[in-house]
Write a structure and sequence with these properties.
With 325 residues, this protein is mainly α. The protein folds into 3 domains: 98 residues, Dna Topoisomerase Vi A Subunit, Chain: A, domain 2 (3-Layer(aba) Sandwich), CATH 3.40.1360.10; 51 residues, Up-down Bundle (Pheromone ER-1), CATH 1.20.50; 124 residues, no CATH class. It is built from 14 helices and 5 strands. Strand 4 and strand 5 form a beta hairpin. Helix 3 crosses helix 4, helix 5 runs parallel beside helix 7 and helix 13 runs antiparallel to helix 14. It is extended, with a radius of gyration of 26 Å.
């Protein structure tokens, strides 16, 4: 594709199109075209992409599907027919909504009550997975017209949670508890290593957290490594996270210097990774337009603290700084 002049193209490398794939594409483009083989397998792959994209649909992003002639894939098509022929396929793309609704219409015979009921039942969990309320209402009205049923009432009476989408409170709670546990283990590991080998505080692994104010407590520990038994730990937002007196049981486990250094480096790496994971989570929330004002500011801070900004970060920072995206 790139060799033939289509530079704004990416490949999923043989895997199904996931919500994460679509979410990342949304950061770069408002018009997304997905090309599939025109056979049955291609149609099934397209429908899988639909299911995965429903929870993150946005009205400002248009997704279209292109189904190639049998025997072609995007690479072979553009190599044989050229760039212009390939780009003309975009004009005949099938919109996301059209492809979705056409699938609903094919569930059963819509001329019968049983068929319309079956189609509506098939659509309920799919519509429930849409998080964008404006689009959700639009799809509800369309399906109500197709099935000639009060589909809004069916949706309201169906209390099941969206498929594969955990409730926000549950997801946040699990994430918070998991992160807190990992942070405790990492801190214990760092102190265990430094108490037994204080000179490890000079290891270059600490450089990875020097510019992050959330890790100031660790840098204080690094600076006080000669008198570490008197240091107390203060975690994010000035909350007391732990006291050193609570880790002496762990220190009884004798470590070789090599193992202590390895543990120290692994624990510091886990803190940095946790921050990167948090940044990705916030970016996903932004793409789904489910980001709070506090989370928006948090994401801004993540980006502003980077030594160098990518084009993606620069564009995202501009959007975050504006009142509307």
């Amino acid at each position: 594709m790139h060799q033939n002049g289509v530079k704004n193209a990416v490949a999923s490398l043989g895997t199904a199109i996931t919500a994460k794939h679509v979410s990342k594409l949304m950061r770069y483009a408002k018009n997304i075209y997905v090309a599939f083989d025109g056979d049955l397998a291609g149609r099934k792959a397209a429908w899988k992409a639909v299911e995965n994209a429903l929870p993150i649909l946005r009205e400002d992003v248009k997704i279209g599907f292109i189904f190639l002639e049998e025997g072609y894939d995007p690479d072979s098509y553009i190599n044989e027919k050229g760039k212009e022929a390939f780009l003309k396929l975009l004009d005949n793309n099938i919109s996301f909504s059209k492809f979705f609704l056409s699938r609903i219409k094919k569930v059963d015979d819509l001329e019968t009550i049983e068929g319309r009921s079956k189609a509506a039942k098939f659509a309920i969990p799919l519509i429930n997975s849409i998080n964008n309320e404006t689009l959700k209402q639009a799809y509800i009205e369309e399906i109500a017209s197709i099935c000639r049923l009060d589909f809004a009432s069916l949706i309201s009476s169906n209390t099941q949670k969206p498929r594969n989408i955990p409730a926000p409170s549950e997801a946040g709670s699990k994430e918070e508890n998991s992160g807190s546990l990992l942070a405790r283990k990492a801190i214990v590991g760092i102190f265990t290593a430094l108490i037994q080998y204080p000179h490890l505080a000079k290891d270059r692994a600490f450089e990875s957290i020097h510019n992050n104010e959330k890790f100031l407590f660790l840098l204080e520990v690094q600076n006080k490594s000669g008198n570490i038994s008197n240091a107390s730990i203060v975690f994010e937002d000035d909350k007391v996270f732990s006291e050193l007196s609570g880790i002496w049981d762990y220190v009884e486990i004798a470590l070789t210097e090599e193992n202590a250094l390895s543990m120290l480096q692994d624990c510091l790496h886990s803190f940095v990774k946790k921050q990167k994971d948090r940044e990705e989570i916030l970016k996903e929330k932004y793409n789904m337009q489910h980001i709070s004002s506090a989370e928006r500011r948090e994401l801004q801070q993540f980006i502003l603290k980077k030594a160098e900004l990518s084009e993606e970060d620069t564009a995202l920072l501009k959007n975050l700084s504006s009142k509307r995206d």
